[in-house]
Amino acid sequence: MQAERARPWLGTITTIRASGDSEGAVVAAIDQAYAAIAHVHHRMSFQSAASDLAAIARLRPGEEAVIDHATAACLGRALAFAEASGGAFDPVLPENGASWRDLRLQGVRIAVRRTLRLDLSGIAKGYAVDRACERLAAADLVAAMVNAGGDLRTFGPEETVTLTPSGPAAPVAVLLQDGALASSDVIGSLAEYGVVQHRDGRAAPSSAAAPFPTPAFVSVAAPCCTDADALTKIVLAMGDDAAALLRAHDAVAYVHQPDRGWRTIGCEM
């Protein structure tokens, strides 16, 4: 039996498709998966005054706070990517000289060296997709896909995912099995928001990110969506210099630039 649901979470429409032996088990598992997504949404919201990010923003230098286990896990991955990328990926907004180096995370306790604001939008959506997929897998379903606006993870039979950049480009089909995919579209972000939705943490706070000479579309396939989500931003910031980091995470980036067409960076697929 297969069921599919769509709900507004994570700033987009998040769909879950799942297959199992009984309708009741599938529907219950989907509800549990959405509960996991809702938890991430509420704890890691940039806008909500009740979120962990808001609590961190209220800290003064030297103060610490206890945050949710999920927030701590997601932030831990973000800080690991910040270190591995030399700051190209940075969850701390570049205000008043603040950076990821001003955070100290120990378990669920976090302290700051200066007042700062966190923005986990570059990784939290992927983290939420992973947590939802784990709930579905724990229910012993046959197959499932969680898709949060193009950040997706699947298990079960092989799936075909079509990459469709906003700019003039021929679509590309990617085969995905028991894995994840996340995408960042510079042209699409410019058209919808008027700005790019990523930044290079190594750049001066007043400068705009210039990841490629021309606007790019990047999709990263990786074992988990947390990594895929973060790695798309790293590829946009570092270009071909991200190859070693992609290989270290068993990931491949599908990159399209209007003047160069499609190419891959990272692991061989």
Automatic annotation (TrEMBL):
Cofactor(s) essential for the protein: Mg(2+)
The organism's place on the tree of life at top rank: Bacteria
Gene Ontology molecular function terms on file: metal ion binding; transferase activity
UniProt keyword list: FAD, Flavoprotein, Magnesium, Metal-binding, Transferase
Reaction it catalyzes: L-threonyl-[protein] + FAD = FMN-L-threonyl-[protein] + AMP + H(+)
InterPro entries: ApbE (IPR024932), ApbE-like_sf (IPR003374)
Listed EC numbers: 2.7.1.180
Protein name: FAD:protein FMN transferase
The species this protein was found in: Sphingomonas parapaucimobilis NBRC 15100
